[in-house]
Specification:
This protein is mainly α. It contains 13 helices and no strands.
Length: 428
């Protein structure tokens, strides 16, 4: 691995990001259990309350948890700035988001308006507290790398997505939904996938793919203009969606082309690794690149065939691309954090990052994850496969959680031993 250019002085306590990482598979399990409990025909509609809850268990409970945890860790490491009061901010935000998501599910499924209102406040505060702290930190960055620029844009879109989400969720509490509700819902989804998740993944990939996989750097033009092009296109799409709906397909086509380009770049970089040995994270990145291309094509085609395919697109882009990238990176990030924190404390006899992950378990988890995507995709034509997909996903997420906890246990157990040498003697 190549750690050139990293700043390791201001990292938050390991508990700050790890609490988000270890929570993510739990909400994915909850989503799988809800799918098992629900009539498959209900889940085929993207507007049913059950679908909304399942979707947000994946998007907030899994994806956002991973992204928020990654932002807390990567800002100090990649930009050399610390999130203020990192432990307190992380604990407060994590509790509010987790509680808000559970209350949202209960409120929507049981039609409890007061609970929905409390969920809206809890989710909004949880996100905005952490995002505000990250903004305060990122303002101090003096040298803006392509990764930091990507983070800044992603955080900006995240704030917009949160405000839209609060508006949409509160409408279920008040019972007031005007003609703009569907338009705002579409904007909320597109900006969350492309603006928050997509831009963050792209920005982070510029740094972590060459670092973790020892590949050539992304071409300078891609680092300079890919995120900027995506931002400009998202703004264009947002405007056209309200003032000239008939022309929105232009921006939609550009979004698809940019997503497909990034998918191609991922696959290209995985093939340019200087070490030909592949691990589970390489498989995840490669599959995610392919899913980005396929998902973009399907989304573009959704204007010409039945609208229900939008849920299918969600499986491919949300599951195959977003969850794929994040699942794979969890296998890198948690072992890296364990190694980094223990090494910084003076522990030298540490398991290698590769040894912290049970490889056969990770491979089984990956195969089950792919199987769940295939089954969910088939379920849009043959609903009987919906519950089989949920069962496959449930087992996959259980294995992911076990493997991540196993890696983190290295930190807990190693801390019980004395360091191999005393770092305090080197100070002063």
């Amino acid at each position: 691995m190549n750690f050139t250019g990293l700043s390791l002085d201001q990292a938050p306590p390991i508990s700050a990001p790890v609490r988000f990482f270890l929570t993510a598979p739990l909400f994915a399990m909850a989503a799988a259990l809800l799918i098992l409990w629900t009539d498959p025909s209900v889940l085929l509609s993207r507007y049913s309350l059950e679908t909304i809850v399942v979707t947000h268990f994946f998007t907030i409970g899994f994806a956002a948890m991973v992204m928020l945890g990654a932002l807390q860790q990567m800002l100090p490491v990649l930009a050399g700035v610390a999130v203020p009061r990192a432990a307190l901010v992380a604990t407060t935000s994590h509790i509010l988001i987790s509680l808000g998501l559970v209350l949202m599910a209960v409120g929507l499924l049981e039609s409890l308006k007061v609970v929905i209102f409390i969920a809206t406040l809890s989710l909004g505060l949880g996100f905005l507290i952490l995002l505000s702290a990250i903004v305060l930190a990122i303002r101090k960055v003096e040298f803006l790398t392509p990764t930091i620029r990507g983070m800044r844009w992603a955080i900006g879109f995240a704030v917009v997505v949160v405000m839209l989400g609060m508006h949409l969720l509160s409408s279920y509490a008040t019972g007031v939904m005007d003609e703009t509700h569907l338009s705002f819902a579409n904007m909320h989804a597109v900006l969350a996938i492309f603006g928050f998740a997509g831009i963050l993944i792209i920005g982070v990939a510029f740094q972590v793919i060459p670092m973790f996989y020892v590949t050539p750097a992304f071409h300078e033009n891609y680092q300079k203009y890919l995120v900027l092009a995506l931002v400009s296109t998202l703004i264009l799409w947002s405007v056209l969606s309200f003032v000239a709906v008939d022309l929105a397909w232009i921006a939609k086509t550009l979004l698809v082309l940019l997503l497909a380009l990034f998918g191609y770049l991922i696959i290209e970089k995985m093939n340019q690794r200087k070490r030909p040995i592949a691990d589970i994270t390489v498989y995840y990145w490669s599959v995610s690149g392919g899913m980005a291309i396929l998902g973009g094509i399907l989304w573009l085609s959704s204007g010409f065939i039945e609208t229900e395919i939008l849920s299918f697109v969600g499986v491919i882009i949300g599951g195959g691309f977003m969850m794929g990238v994040m699942s794979g990176m969890l296998y890198k990030i948690i072992p890296f954090l364990v190694w980094f924190h223990l090494n910084g404390m003076g522990y030298m006899s540490i398991a290698s990052m590769g040894e912290m992950v049970h490889k056969k378990m990770a491979l089984t988890q990956f195969v089950l994850f792919l199987l769940s995507l295939a089954l969910f995709s088939l379920a849009f034509w043959f609903p009987v496969f919906m519950k089989l997909g949920a069962l496959s996903l449930l087992v996959s997420m259980v294995l992911l959680e076990v493997n991540l906890v196993r890696a983190y246990r290295n930190y807990i157990e190693t801390r019980k031993r004395k360091p191999d040498f005393d770092m305090s003697g080197m100070q002063g």
